[in-house]
């Protein structure tokens, strides 16, 4: 049995184009898995598909920081070897997940950040890309205008002013019962330059082990401080059902930080959960190559 589950983050629109984008990504992941039988190829390809789609806050179409730049975080983790790698606050390169994978496979490092991440990517042949879509530029200009006029900004920190779009993540269980996880984001709108969210924090926003794969989304600071991804892994390792653990993890996040978010998780029995405490949480699942409906649980 193989399962690929992807999310487009909390507060992202659940209108058809957003769901279709996720379904296409899950299918791309499955096709990559079939072609190479490599779980990292599968999660990477699913995430690349979403990074290339301007509808989501990852890669091209990322939300812009305070200074009008896209700074990307991305991570990948293999549940079998425990290998993990991430890039943080990387400018000028689109596919953060692929740079993270290169880092994992070509170096002994685990995280590279900022200028160093961009330099590493360029040395590995990744193309220059500002990742700034016209819609996100327009949102940023509008926000600057409102600020200049001394007006309140009424926007989602996750998705920016105009677009209901956010972080993406993918988790997988392959036919051999092995897990992998990958995640990518432009982070939060108008963040400080250099700010890093939970996406590239092992145990905060992402984890994969022999027991499960999990990726989180929402207010990154809260997921880092509560080590929510590792909390979920620990619960599943203790023999608990993924949904029960996911519910508890989101309730705990809210109790400890007052913040909002969601997560997706899959265990080695093929049991999945998608839980959040926001308004929306679009997800898509492909089981053995076939799309399957998932209803995320809203707390
Ligand atoms: N967790 C991401 C961050 O804080 C944003 C999100 O997933 O909504 O960078």
Structural account:
There is one protein chain. The chain is α+β, with helices and mostly antiparallel strands. It has one domain (3-298): 4-Layer Sandwich (Glutamine Phosphoribosylpyrophosphate, subunit 1, domain 1), CATH 3.60.20. It contains 8 helices and 13 strands. It has an 8-stranded mixed β-sheet, with helices on one face. The chain starts with a strand and ends with a strand. The model has no long low-confidence stretch (mean pLDDT 94).
CATH class: Alpha Beta
Fraction of residues in helix: 25-40%
Bound molecules: aspartic acid
**Number of structural domains:** 1
Average of the residue pLDDT scores:
94
User: What's the architecture in CATH terms?
Assistant: 4-Layer Sandwich
Which strand order spans the largest sheet, edge to edge or round the barrel?
4-3-2-6-5-1-11-12
**Helical run tally:** 8
Structural class: alpha+beta
Topology:
Blueprint: E1 3-7, H1 16-36, H2 39-51, E2 72-78, E3 84-90, H3 96-106, E4 111-113, H4 114-123, H5 134-148, E5 168-173, E6 179-185, E7 206-208, E8 212-218, H6 220-226, H7 228-237, H8 242-257, E9 261-267, E10 272-276, E11 283-287, E12 290-292, E13 297-298
Parallel strand pairs: 3-4, 10-13
Antiparallel strand pairs: 1-5, 1-11, 2-3, 2-6, 5-6, 7-8, 8-9, 9-10, 11-12
Bound molecules: aspartic acid.
The site of aspartic acid (ASP) has 15 residues, from strand 8.
Q: What keywords describe this structure?
A:
Glutamine Phosphoribosylpyrophosphate, subunit 1, domain 1, single chain, alpha+beta, 299 residues, 8 helices, binds aspartic acid
